[in-house]
User: What shape does this take?
Amino acid sequence: MDLFELRALPALNVIGLMSGSSCDGVDAALVRIEGTGRGLKAELLAFETVPYDEAFKARLLDPNLTMRDVLLLNVEVGERLAEAALRVRRGIKAHAVGSHGHTLAHVPPVGESAVAGTLQVGEAAVIAERTGLPVVSDFRARDMAVGGQGAPLVPYVDWLLFGQAEGATACLNIGGIANFTVVQSRLEDLLAFDTGPGNMPIDGAVRARTGRHYDANGEMAARGKVVPHLFQRLSSHPFFERRPPKSTGRENFDAPVYLADTLYDSAMADDDLVATVTAAVAASIADAYRRYIASRHPGAPIVVSGGGAHNPVLLARMRETLPGVDIRTSDAHGISVDAKEAFAFAILANETLRGTPANVPAATGARKSAVLGKITL
Assistant: This one.
């Protein structure tokens, strides 16, 4: 089926693929999508997570990758993305794939600097060959080509999902990095930006101290005590002072960078380190809400998705810091906290195939709207 035939169909079943900065694995969502733009309707048909093994995760996190390493990872991530796409189909007919891939590097423009770029691996040609489906990939590059940060891209989907509610809704995704999208009825009124660290430094601290992948149910943070001098240092990162639009990544908030020598400081108890980092992440999110959201939309509810939604200590810290603000997970709205980002890239792929611009200049700082992604047949 060619692109003209796809566009003629009233509804498409699209597989969204996402490999996040926490390097846990590939999330795959099969989504039935009808229409495009504001009238779009989407239904999650199936969801799968295909985890990465520890050796492969270590390669993705290696700060000293060579060009040969990157080349090989591009193909190998593509194979894993294709595997996840094949698993999630479950015998259901699919028409296309939308793959975010895995971000190895993201350098957004700062000020007037023209030095900027983004690199996601996960070869689209491999996915297309293994699945027999057209693949939309490399979503961030077009937004950056028109002067944007290349992130966040999910705000368009947040607007489709929550923009019809009365008043403003603050959609918070806590993945490796945390970001807000504040949606109202008009797309041009949308506000979106990265707040800073999410699970990335918490997971990194747990991994460095215990060898485990993450703080299950926030148990280490619950046992530990917040160390004031470290909390103060973590809360003073210059990124927090930058005004939106802004985006960030591992270059600022990977555990070895953000925590520096403290990561392996034997004088600090493991639980105390994790408790302090968790508190600092919650505080950075709450501070961003107060600075940039509450001042414009007092009392706007927060809808949380992403892996951080499973951390009760992180959410409790946010509620303590933002008393009176309704903080709930996207599950309460029928949208899985785990499937949200893969779901979003299925929708973004649909918009690419339909020829509908899906970046949000108010969120990324782009000069104009643009159709995102590249299509591999």
The chain has a mean pLDDT of 94. The first strand starts at residue 11 and ends at 19. The radius of gyration is 20 Å.
